[in-house]
Amino acid sequence: MIVCVAVVGHQNNPLYIQSFTEADDALKLHHIVHCSLDVVDERVNNPKKSGPTLNETFLGLLYPTENYKVYGYLTNTKVKFILVTTDLDVRDVDVRNFFRRFHAAYVDAVSNPFHVPGKKITSRTFAERVSNIVKSFGLSSTG
Amino acid sequence: MDPAGTPLGKMLLEEITPVVMVLRTPSVEEACVKNGLSFVEMLSPFCNFSNIDVPLRTSSDQPYRLHKFKLRLFYESDVRQPNIEVAKERLKQVITKAGEKENLELISDPPQVSNLLDSSKSELLPSWFEYLNKELIRTASFSEHETFDHPVGCLLVVSSKDEQPINRFIDHFNTNKLPSLLNDGAMDPKILKHYLLVHDNHDGSSEKASKILSEMKSTFGTNECHLLCINSSQDAKMEHQDDPWASYKYDGSPVQRLGCCLDVDDISALKDLMHEFSSKHVIPYMEQKVRILNQQVSATRRGFRNQIKNLWWRKGKDDPNEMPSGSMYTFSSIESQIRVLGDHAFMLHDYELALANYRLISTDYKLDKAWKRYAGVQEMMALAYFLLDQSRKEAEYCMENAFNTYLKLGSSGQQNATRCGLWWIEMLKTRDQYKEAASVYFRICSEELLHSAVMLEQASYCYLFSKPPMLYKYGFHLVLSGDRYRKTDQIKHAIRTYRSALSVYRETTWSYIRDHVHFHIGQWYALLGFHDVAVRHMLQVLACSHQSKATQELFLRDFLQIFQGAGKTFEVPGLQLPVIDISSLKVVFEDQRTYASSLAASVRESLWRSLEEDLIPSLPGARTNWLDVQTKLMPKRLRESNVCVAGEAIKVVVEFKNPLQVPIPISNVSLICELSRSEEEISDTNASTSELANDEDHQRVVSSDSGSVILSEFDFSLGGGEKKLVELTVTPKLEGTLKLVGVRWKFSGCVGFYTFESILLVKKIARGKRKAKAKQSPLNDLKFVVIKPVPKLEGHIRSFPEKAYAGHIQPLILELKNQSNCSIKNLKMKISHPRFLSIGNKEVPHVDFRACLEKQSDNKQGGTRANLKKASQGVFLFPEDVAIKGDKPLLWPLWLRAAVPENFLLYIIIYYEMEDASSVMKYRTLRLHYNLQVLPSLDVSFKISPCPSRLQEFLVRMDVVNKASSQSFQVSQLSTVGDNWGISRLQPIDGIIPSQSLTVGQAFSFFFMLKSRRLSSVDAATHVPDLSPDVDNDVILCPGSVKEPLVNATHSPLANFHDSERLQHGIHNQKDDNTVDFVLISRPLKSDTNSEEDSDQPQLFSHHACYCRTASTSPISWTMIGPRTKYHNFSSSFCEINLKMTIHNSSDAIASISISTADSAGQSDALPSQGGWKPVVKEIKAASPKAAGIIAGNSPESLSSLKPVASPVSSFIWSGSSSSNFQLGPRSSTDIPMQICVFSPGTYDLSSYVLNWNLRQDDGGCDQLEAKESNPEETRKLSGTCSGYPYFLTVLQSV
């Protein structure tokens, strides 16, 4: 199950963070997303690791904590997408697919002329779309 | 890099060293306690040799020298595995003590991230970590499976005071006192023994001791016995320059001076003793042991044969023992011996040998599934690899293996796992693999909170030191650690970690995290009683608009609790509750400009300025600055500051905003001001050079709470997310310099303040400052020079309506008041929109509204206009004798007419001068501003078409649409303005409007006859019969309004308004005879809703239409005069009809006119169907077929004969001159005879002629032309062509 998705701007400022858990663990998820940015930064600044996959946007598993797995995705504009999941065995294909759809949703959201770049995404449509993507992620991974 | 020089290497050289067990009698201890030390403590400093320089040989006879060496001394009781609970307690104490030491640094701010990265590691890392880690490692000491902690030798100590010292020595080795390690067979009980006799010099001479020593020597052998004399210093006042014990007594009490009874000789004796013991006994003993063991091992295990044998033998032992893994290996087993060999070699720094043996043994242990031993060996292998600086990978692999194996063991391996982990971490740190080190720290974390707190904190530092620094993880781990510290009540540690985390989170946009950190720091400080610091942190989270309401309430409640805990009211800098929007800051002050209302003050200064231009006396140079006159009297500083008058309030408008969803009460909101008295004006007038210095000397800062300033205070409550504009005022009472410093407020006990200086005011705040000056110093805008009181005029318009229907005329009264006793003079007034507001002519207010409007016989138009004292540009001068003083207000009538439906802003400026010439201000202006919403009412449009049948008469169609939303109107009167035109009804008065009023949305058209009076007086009387009963200026439209008197449109104020309307509509100043102005007077139909207000006052609406052109643009007009019906006997001849064309030239120029007739017909179709007029031909045809039948002679065939009428076939010819040219003088008429010939009966349209006219430009014509060209709106054609008017003539066959 995906517990949290986040969009983080190129200055590592949170643009959108949404948890999908019942419990009141927003702070924890904030922390997890926040500190997984270190790993993103590291991967971005260390091109030697991502040598053959120079234009690869998918960053893979960032940060395996005790209970969560954190995946990352980096757009060309240095906007990061973070996915926190509790699933222990997640297929890379699923995650990639998720991020691709998430990216599309994000692009649509920021293409809104009323969206101020670098500000938080407040679009309700975006939120709905993301929650749909999140739901379908669960379905495709189990089935 | 020398591995021994690294932190891990040093640590290993300290920790993995031979252990010497010390057995002593109580009297030995007594002698030592005099120095504040135990026996072991006394010896410890001298067991550490940085360069012992002992020659050694490896097992393969390679000579080498041992340099760094250390012995670890332990009492026999300590040589056992430490109790885990005790060890934990001890660790806790260490941590708590370290926490208490933090105290002093608590208050300062945490460093910035950049500083954090620059500062060295030793600065950042708390020093107690090292100590704690050592303690942690020691918790795993003296285990069975590792032999480096097993005592190599034994030091038996007896005091010379003891009875029977020899027996005591023997007693020492009594088995039941010895540690279990020696007894249960884990280690060889045959160890090196050394006998030491301690003599306390306080107890007398050493003779007795010498005796005992010789006795000992005979018993135990000469080499193994020693005498140690201590406490030679009698007075116990020895001071040691470099206290050797300092580093060994970590938690020692500094009360007693350590080693106070030991003099220099004693210390050197101690040194010699330990040196000899190490170099002569311990090391050779160990070397010897290594040699023996090595030979044994070589014999049994080395070589191909032995290995095969071993494997075989091991394989045969495939049923592992059920016993606990440790006890199967006694000291005599070959595995233990190999281990001992390895450890001894390790301790003698022969790492290669050690490694070889560890390798050998590790496979055995693995096969035996003796995991703890296996892990221990792996650990040692890793360390040996490390110290050999070989194969890093191998070292790490071994370490990880060991660590994992220990972890697998569960709780029994926990201590070892920790130790192993710490060593591993050190190893990684040495290689700058901080990130990996951090993850090992993370893995060490156990269930135990305190332990994991420390480990997490250390992990966080690893993240900080890693390259590149991983700040986010640094922060996160600090928070995790702090959380655990808090749970174990280590609040100071918790605060420390959170504060360190702040360096990462302070500037972050991740507000949830930041709030969490600040909030908890605040809470914890409050727990410790540091309320002010707590408040400071809580402040950071107060304005948390992003948090949920519950969280906001929690934050707020805790903040208030902490604040009350502080127990006093104090000023809180940076209280963000409420938030002040500095961009909303607006300062309104009155110098020579005064405002009647705050609304007026908010109007742009430039607007006022443009209005004021004609009012304010222009001074040479800077007209804007009245102080220029007194340049010599006023210092420059004053001229450039804002000026305000003592006793008059300065208003500051600031917006307060509640960022929370929780309502917050705010009280005592007031300004912070400084009023400083300055005597400069009097004492020092022109010393501009020393001005700055004088500033300091002369000014006496008067604090704001003294009586010199009156501050307004406000209490209000802000709901969730509410914004409120608050108007604060300050009234200086004395002259001087007033400075607005900031604003302060009280929020349930705590005083927040906000200084305006804290931000650089980019925005120009004060109004009316020249730009250059605003650039100079924006803060000057908050500085005021307070001057002596001067009179101030207050004024307002009584009951100015907010809404009005367009056209509504209302009387208003302007009330002016002067509160002071000084009189003012020279009042002037200017109104921005004279179209809307007209100034009345009497000082007394009009009691009778109607009287001013109604037409009265004795009204003289000229007289009323003359009364208006209008200066140029619409400036109204009040009469000289008007004086306003004291209580008596001046009332002045005004007329308001809502001219156009729009949202209308009215500006009025009243200018006055001071009677008192000595006052600093010469004049002031009062600015009034009103807002009027004008609703649409009647929309009137006029259409004028020339009357085809009559010269100089026009048909007027007036279309009236009621566009009001809810009001009905009664149209009562239409008037023309001026003497040139008269107007008359076409319909009877009763039939005009059946309902007598226009309801909402209703449109109606009225028709009138308009007649030029001028012409009628000359010609019309002779030519045209006067059909209209009265050709007057006014027409009453409604039968109901007949009773009411006519409204005089030529009288003030209607006339004034009309003039304004004319001005508004065009720039025609010269009279144009072809235009006419109408004034429509209407009254609102009194409905129920309106009945209450102004029921006695008649409401009057006027609608003005100016410059309504009579339809033709040509100055030439004409009529065809002739018979309409003619009987002729066509059988005899064709019919000749004479007609006359009267042509009038209404222009001022001579016109040359040519008329050309054309016989081709067909123009009848081209009749314009404008303005409701329809071609008459068709109507005749349709409406009276009977008549047509008569014409056609009642026969069906004759119907076809009508066709020529409509058909283009011409059946008449112009028989007169086909073209005639003539001149027509200005404003004159002439008659031209015309003739046609008709050949058959029928109805004919005689419009088939064209009239060309051309205005002759004679004397001065060029100028006129130019004038006209320069004015494109008014270009009048100088020539033109007109086609003929339709003129229908019916010719009938006479009988």
Automatic annotation (TrEMBL), chain A:
Signal peptide: none annotated. One of its GO terms (cellular component) is endoplasmic reticulum. Pfam families: Sedlin_N. CDD domains: TRAPPC2L (cd14854). Keywords: Endoplasmic reticulum, ER-Golgi transport, Golgi apparatus, Transport. Gene3D superfamilies: 3.30.450.70. The keyword Transferase does not apply. It is found in: Endoplasmic reticulum; Golgi apparatus, cis-Golgi network; Golgi apparatus. It comes from the Eukaryota. GO terms for biological process: endoplasmic reticulum to Golgi vesicle-mediated transport. Belongs to the TRAPP small subunits family. Sedlin subfamily. Part of the multisubunit transport protein particle (TRAPP) complex. PANTHER family: TRAFFICKING PROTEIN PARTICLE COMPLEX SUBUNIT 2. This is Trafficking protein particle complex subunit. The lineage of its organism: Eukaryota, Viridiplantae, Streptophyta, Embryophyta, Tracheophyta.
Automatic annotation (TrEMBL), chain B:
One of its GO terms (cellular component) is TRAPPIII protein complex. This is Trafficking protein particle complex subunit 8. Pfam families: Ig_TPPC8_1st (PF24545), Ig_TPPC8_2nd (PF24544), Ig_TPPC8_C (PF24542), TRAPPC-Trs85 (PF12739). Residues 807-926 form the TPPC8 second Ig-like domain. Gene3D superfamilies: Tetratricopeptide repeat domain. Residues 1118-1248 form the TPPC8 C-terminal Ig-like domain. PANTHER family: TRAFFICKING PROTEIN PARTICLE COMPLEX SUBUNIT 8, TRANSPORT PROTEIN TRAPP. Residues 606-748 form the TPPC8 first Ig-like domain. InterPro entries: Ig_TPPC8_1st, Ig_TPPC8_2nd, Ig_TPPC8_C, TPR-like_helical_dom_sf, TRAPP_III_complex_Trs85. It comes from Linum trigynum. The lineage of its organism: Eukaryota, Viridiplantae, Streptophyta, Embryophyta, Tracheophyta.
